[in-house]
Amino acid sequence: MSLGQLTVVAFEVIRSGEDIDLGLIVKAVSSGTTVALSVIMGLPAVCLALWLAIRVARNSFTDYLGLRGTSWKNVLLGTVALVLLIGAWEVMAKVLGRQSTPSFMLEVVKSAQVDGTLWILVIALTAGAAITEELLARGFLYRGWSESFLRPIGAMVLSSLVWTAMHAQYYDPFLFTQVFTMGLLFGYLRYRSGSTWLTIYLHALNNLAATVQTLLILKGVISP
To answer: Between the CA atoms of 187, 191, 192 and 193, what dihedral angle is there, to the nearest 10 degrees?
Structure first.
């Protein structure tokens, strides 16, 4: 996944035609267009790696990753639980006087607007990131660890920690804790339903809501 993402960053740096230095690399990494394309490029890389690992173990790709449907009851339960969790964190952010939307997200969306690639960023965050991260965390890692001495509870916690570490761009313990609790919720729903499609849907829903919230903040409709 990192290789796929770094390929895009390297391409953008070289394409700029400027002298390569740290400032240029930072600029490329924080570009909305670069972020969108790097997220999209990470998906096929992760799918290939998981397919190879699962094939070597002689398991079914779709079965091992939990790519199966679930009941409407689980969908409704997951949606309501996610809304309540997000709402609780929004209230906590207001009480503590913290910004609920990461500065990184604000800069990325603003950059994509300037570049005219906002639609690509929305697709990347709602579909690309959700599918890539869920296949890895709640699909592959949860499945393997849940069948080890860690059992399902340990797998929920450890896969959530890994998923939280993948959001290192936030640089904020408050936001890390928020991501971790969301990971625990997704892990529980993966355990309850046996479906990674459910967590992909919820992850996409959360990212879409976060993107819309960021756009409203940039337009001055709501406060950060």
So the answer is: 100
